[in-house]
Design brief:
Layout (H helix, E strand, L loop, with lengths): L8 H6 L14 H10 L3 H11 L4 H14 L1
Helix pairs in contact: 2-3, 2-4
Length: 71
């Protein structure tokens, strides 16, 4: 059985917006990354989303830029 590189902690953030990574919508990426940033997990979650959902890459880049500017 293959083990997910990111194990279970990433699910906490994905579940804020969707039942699974497959159900994550573009409009929810910012909320997920914002919540992950509060716990210093933003990079891990961003990498997980990019790995599993390459179609959301643009939605990852823009919110991360915004969150860095707000810090």
């Amino acid at each position: 059985m293959a083990t997910d590189t990111y194990s279970e902690p990433h699910l906490k953030y994905i579940k804020l917006a969707a039942d699974s990574i497959e159900d994550l919508r573009k409009i929810d990426v910012y909320r997920v990354l914002n919540a992950a940033a509060e716990d210093n997990m933003q990079t891990v979650i961003a990498n997980y989303i990019k790995e599993k959902r390459s179609d959301l890459t643009t939605e990852i880049i823009e919110p991360r830029r915004d969150l860095k500017e707000a810090a």
